[in-house]
Amino acid sequence: MSSATKEYITPITNKGVIQLTGEERVKYLQGQVTSDVAKLDEQKLQLTCHCDFKGKTWSVSYALNWQDSILLLPHKTALAKSLAELNKYGVFAKVEIADQTDNWQIIGGVGETFEQAIQDLFGSVPNTNEKVISNENGLAVLVSSLHLPSRFMVLQPIDAKQKLASESTDKGHLWEMDEIKAGIGEISEPTANEFVPQMLNLHCVDAIDFEKGCYMGQEVIARTKYLGRNKKAGFILASNSTQSNLTGESLEFEIEGNWRPGGTILRSATNDEQTWIFAVLAKDTQLGTEFRLKSKPDVIFNTQALPYELT
């Protein structure tokens, strides 16, 4: 089953912005998230995870530098709790942490039209060697260039002198579908604090650095890796049906005529009479396995190939 990505430009309205400033922002965040923030320079983008001390995930964010600050882009509905947890320990460091969502415009897209708009604003287009470029107009970011067409985000302060106008029609479902096809797990309010990062395959997309020092939840996350205790993983599934937001919904699978609990949906998107989801299932789930939606038993999803190897 496939659904080709179309050229599009769209506001990304489900992302929030947490901004960290202060001379100890790198040192502090290094002790809170799973990626190596010390390696986050002006040309890089990181995917990172914020967990509690039990290794359960509060939020998954894109992280990048902006001037004298670090920006985290979690799902809007996961932002408040993650922000509160960051601020809980931030009082002991020289760092200021704030919700700056209302002060930024985020636009995503694919295709020549968007690349030309980025070229006009920034003088060049991000590439695999320089994933982030910035100037007074904000930041342009290469998000993925794997098996999908290159995807880009533009982040602009609302007071930027030269603004990038997005299409009036919201095509955020296309961006969400590309995120799912890239095998990127996400946490929003319904699924917060339930899964360790490996259950979302975040180790497969370089969101966990196992060589860095201690951070919140590190002991559990390390044990999950080195003792092989993880029995769940993220999977991509698709259905020939159109369904509204399924985040937090349950899946079931059939064994000898009986339907049993199968997993939890983390994100979903619908386009061209297909619905794609990213869900946490048993790690030994095979390609092509059928699952049904618990709330709508006639809706069947089939497991699709992941763009990376589960390790």
TrEMBL record:
<feature type="domain" description="tRNA-modifying protein YgfZ-like beta-barrel">
    <location>
        <begin position="230"/>
        <end position="294"/>
    </location>
</feature>
<dbReference type="InterPro" id="IPR048451">
    <property type="entry name" value="YgfZ_barrel"/>
</dbReference>
<protein>
    <submittedName>
        <fullName>tRNA-modifying protein YgfZ</fullName>
    </submittedName>
</protein>
<dbReference type="InterPro" id="IPR045179">
    <property type="entry name" value="YgfZ/GcvT"/>
</dbReference>
<dbReference type="InterPro" id="IPR017703">
    <property type="entry name" value="YgfZ/GCV_T_CS"/>
</dbReference>
<dbReference type="Pfam" id="PF21130">
    <property type="entry name" value="YgfZ_barrel"/>
</dbReference>
<dbReference type="InterPro" id="IPR029043">
    <property type="entry name" value="GcvT/YgfZ_C"/>
</dbReference>
